Amino acid sequence: MWSPNHPPRAIAIDGPAASGKSSVGQRLARHLGYLYFDTGVMYRAVAFLAHEQHIPPDDAERLGALARTVRLDVLPAPEPPHYAVRADGRDITWALRLPEVEATVSAVSAHPSVRAALTEQQRRVGRQGRVVMVGRDIGTVVMPEAEFKVYLDASPEERARRRYAELQARGEPVSYEAVLAAVRERDHLDSTRETAPLTRAPDAIYVDTTHLSLDEVIAHLLNCIERGSPSPSSGKGGPPS
Ligand code: DC
């Protein structure tokens, strides 16, 4: 069992797009002095490089070869988004949220060849400990041995509202309806793919963030850590339907 003085070595946070994983993961990592590792950026990096190299998102063989051969480094950075992603030494952090990447990353990440290569790299980071890892399959596939697992969720409408506000703040012209449709499409692809679909680990705490502020979610999770209880029944809300 852990305590504030002996927090869990590895924390796994999974959940659908815009459920609050990045904000919660970053805050928790900062609070504990842990590395924050958003595994989605690795899939985004492969999707971007594939786009650059004109590899179609359905070419499993070439995508797998790309994922196996490229050296991806995810480094902490002082400025938001608080990490830098390098592909063979080149900084590609700026490219990871491009519309071309958004459009293909779910398809790229569905290939078992791509997942096998990136899962291996992610495990290496996870096994070093003192890490908060965020993704879709961390508690189920990448780090099933993580001592503290969280599944964050929120209604599709609320997640679309958050994404829409982010895009508006960046001055990107897009309608709420289009964002909601993209969220639903991403949910469908991420949870129905054959390899490592998005699903809640049986021992993960389930937190529905639809009506919770970031502070409330963090307070709840720190409380779970303090109590030393990984029990899913201590989580807020019920299991995803
Ligand atoms: O969290 P995100 O939006 O940056 O993730 C981008 C894509 O990568 C998303 O469609 C799901 C996929 N992904 C995954 O399959 N497994 C992970 N561990 C992380 C992300």
What is this structure's SSE topology?
Blueprint: E1 10-14, H1 21-32, E2 35-38, H2 40-52, H3 60-69, E3 72-76, E4 83-87, E5 90-91, H4 99-109, H5 112-127, E6 131-135, H6 138-142, E7 148-153, H7 156-169, H8 176-192, E8 205-208, H9 214-227
Parallel strand pairs: 1-6, 1-7, 2-6, 7-8
Antiparallel strand pairs: 3-4, 4-5
Helix pairs in contact: 1-9, 2-4, 3-5, 7-8
The structure holds 2'-deoxycytidine-5'-monophosphate.
2'-deoxycytidine-5'-monophosphate is lined by residues 17, 39-40, 43-44, 105-106, 109, 135-138, 186, 190.
Walk me through the structure.
The protein has 241 residues and is α/β, with parallel strands linked by helices. 46% of the residues lie in helices and 15% in strands. It has one domain (10-234): Rossmann fold. It is built from 9 helices and 8 strands. The strands form 2 sheets. It has a 5-stranded parallel β-sheet with strand order 2-6-1-7-8, sandwiched between helices. It binds 2'-deoxycytidine-5'-monophosphate. The site of 2'-deoxycytidine-5'-monophosphate (DC) has 14 residues, from helix 2, helix 4 and helix 8.
What are its keywords?
5-stranded parallel β-sheet; binds 2'-deoxycytidine-5'-monophosphate; globular; alpha/beta; Rossmann fold; 241 residues; 3-stranded antiparallel β-sheet; single chain; 9 helices; disordered C terminus
Number of separate domains: 1
CATH superfamily label: P-loop containing nucleotide triphosphate hydrolases
Q: Name the poorly predicted regions.
A: 231-241
- How much of the residues is beta strand, in percent? 5-15%
Which architecture would the CATH scheme give at its second level? 3-Layer(aba) Sandwich
Q: What's the oligomerization state?
A: single chain
CATH topology: Rossmann fold
How many DSSP H or I helices? 9
The main β sheet shows up as: 5 strands, parallel
Q: Which class best fits the helix and strand makeup?
A: alpha/beta
Number of DSSP strand runs: 8
Helix content: 40-55%
Give the CA-CA distance, first to last residue.
30 Å
Question: Given the C-alpha coordinates, what overall shape results?
Answer: globular
Spatial order of the strands forming the largest sheet: 2-6-1-7-8
Mean pLDDT over all positions = 90
Note the run of SSEs as H and E: EHEHHEEEHHEHEHHEH
Bound compounds, each kind once, are: 2'-deoxycytidine-5'-monophosphate
